[in-house]
Amino acid sequence: MSSAPDPRTTTATGSDVRVRFCPSPTGLPHVGLIRTALFNWGYARHHGGKLVFRIEDTDAARDSEESYQQLLDALRWLHIDWDEGVEVGGPHAPYRQSQRSDLYLEVLEKLKAAGAVYESFSTAEEIDARNEANGRAKQMGYDNYDRDLTEEQKAAFRAEGRQPALRLRVPDEDITYVDLIRGEVTFPAGSFPDFVIVRPNGAPLYTFVNPVDDALMGITHVLRGEDLMPSTARQLVLYAALVDAGVTTFIPRFGHMPLVLGDGTKKLSKRDPRADLFLHRERGFIHEGLLNYLALLGWSIGHDRDVFSLEEFIAAFDIADVNPNPARFDQKKAESINGDHIRMLEPADFAERIVPYLVKAGVVGKNPTDEQRALITAAAPLIQERLPLLGDAPGLLGFLFADEVSYDDDALAGLPDNAAEVLNACVAALELVPETEFTAQAIQDALSSALIDGLGLKPRVAYGPPRVAISGRRVSPPLFESMELLGKQASVARLAALVRHLAA
């Protein structure tokens, strides 16, 4: 290696681009992880390349099959597909680290034969003692002591019952690469010592298996979080060794995406509700809206535009355009963008998407009847223009499916003193509208004549009491259209019911 980027770094473009998404199956998927998947997916699709989805599941204490299934669920819900990997197969199977042990051993033998790794018998206590004796700070860690042990010394250590770790030789030179997002980065010579790639018990470390998998799978571009940037120098050293050993022919390019922040300057915690992908789905984000917002965490399609389709994202996205500065997760903006995408849905599609939320809230049964589905289809356009989250649908439409209305406290508290008079006037006016002509326009004409012309009320005051009577809420879908959907009999009954409630 030299102070210039390694000339063996890939120049792959177009359909030769190969990126990967390689999470560990631990815990719930969070938005930072999904943003990484999105940017890799977008880069592959933009260039006509390939996305590889593999699983790093060698930490038996933390990995779980449940988390693996949740990862699959998350990507499928978000419509992020992959070309090779778990569940779909490919030429570099298997795609789970736990099933690739034999491949790692083969690579290790090649590195040994090339002289890139050596046995290290030093214990942590011995390293600390040598550093202290030589006036080196303990934080400097390993001192490369075992690099040139003789066979006799190795045999003596084995006779004591010691098992060696395997370390990679690190050249005493600057390590430079050009980050796709951050430009040229140099790690000065001596930034880190020879490092362990295989533990004394024979278990390979992440710093070994991750680059090896990339090399064996032909990954050309490693796009990952900024928090992993400190390990890049080690990976570059290992890649160079893999090229020298004939395992691969090139070194991939790296791009380190900005952190996603929560409050202040802190990285968005996995425990923060804003990081919980499934909570966003539960609250009613649609995949188009959430992906649009996640794309904005470090990237922009234009200076004056925040809302775009996934097709537009793919056409415009390039990792080189990602901003290296941290991005903050703004819940209100995310919901606003989601609302924009909800309004872009076809009415029938929107109606279908709110059904699971109505079912979960108990508004309709698990298998809605034909009559209920017809009502959902008719009512959906009344709320589509005002809904930021699908999870708000039950609160806005529930009254249409209820036999009786329950009144919100704030709705009752906001009623005027003459609410009963207004409601009685509504009943009298609507009784005159024939049931066969009970349309939104006829209802509006009748109530306007009775309340605005007859009682001299302003519209804002006039329609408050009937809105509460019909929906039980201060805010509801359009009043006249709601009454048309309920029908004359149910609408008049609800108006009269609120009069009785106020008199009780």
TrEMBL record:
EC number per UniProt: 6.1.1.17
Entries under InterPro entries matching the protein: aa-tRNA-synth_I_cd-bd (IPR045462), aa-tRNA-synth_I_codon-bd_sub2 (IPR020751), aa_tRNA-synth_I_cd-bd_sf (IPR008925), Glu-tRNA-ligase_bac/mito (IPR004527), Glu-tRNA-synth_I_codon-bd_sub1 (IPR020752), Glu/Gln-tRNA-synth (IPR000924), Glu/Gln-tRNA-synth_Ib_cat-dom (IPR020058), GluQ/Sye (IPR049940)
Aminoacyl-tRNA synthetase class I anticodon-binding domain residues: 350-497
Top-level enzyme category: ligase
GO biological process: glutamyl-tRNA aminoacylation
UniProt motif 'KMSKS' region: location: 267-271
UniProt keyword Transmembrane helix present: no
Main location: cytoplasm
Domain Glutamyl/glutaminyl-tRNA synthetase class Ib catalytic stretches: 17-333
Keywords for the protein's UniProt record, in alphabetical order: Aminoacyl-tRNA synthetase, ATP-binding, Cytoplasm, Ligase, Nucleotide-binding, Protein biosynthesis
Catalytic activity: tRNA(Glu) + L-glutamate + ATP = L-glutamyl-tRNA(Glu) + AMP + diphosphate
Subunit structure: Monomer.
Protein name: Glutamate--tRNA ligase
Species for this entry: Microbacterium stercoris
Taxonomic lineage of the native organism: Bacteria, Bacillati, Actinomycetota, Actinomycetes, Micrococcales
